[in-house]
Amino acid sequence: MGKVVMYGTVSVDGFIADEHDQPGPLFDWLLGGTVPLDGSGALKVSQASYDYTRPHWDRIGATIVGRHVFDITDGWDGKPPGGVDHVVVVTHRPQPADWDPEAPFHFTDGVEAAMAKAQELAGDRVVEVSAGDVGGQLFAAGLIDEVRMDVVPVVLGSGKRYFGPVGAQHLLEGPDVVVQGERVLHLCFRVRR
User: Fold this and answer.
1) Where does the Bacterial bifunctional deaminase-reductase C-terminal domain start and stop, copy by copy (predicted)?
2) What mean pLDDT, rounded, does the chain reach?
């Protein structure tokens, strides 16, 4: 089984979006560089950010997201972001009625079922967990091996927290990796067991 990595872009005060689910300038680092990050050509980052981000993206076999993220992105039009093979959506509602059954999205009820499905799909590759409420639930349950953060120089003041509802202290190792990109600091921590 591959490792499980909680991943997301975050403000220096710990938010992944404002209270209206808007990221504001959090993703500016993905647009301000000169090196294409994916085949779309829309995402361009610094060379340092590319060297850190692209290899990680290439190791992802499945991503776990919450239904809220799925809904606000409109399911990425059925194409997983970043070239990920599979997306597992945690939801207590059925998949959209008009959803393409051939799209590599899997709908599960609960974080444990989502993790089991994602690990099955990913095999020995990385299971990525999006930051926020679902990521926080998996983190609190002790199911996360590593935390990767793209920290950007903005203070949002309030909004959606990186670790979601986690209310207890958890210790991390490291950081094991610190990479400075343009308008972003990439950090990687192992979760202490």
Assistant:
1) 4-170
2) 94
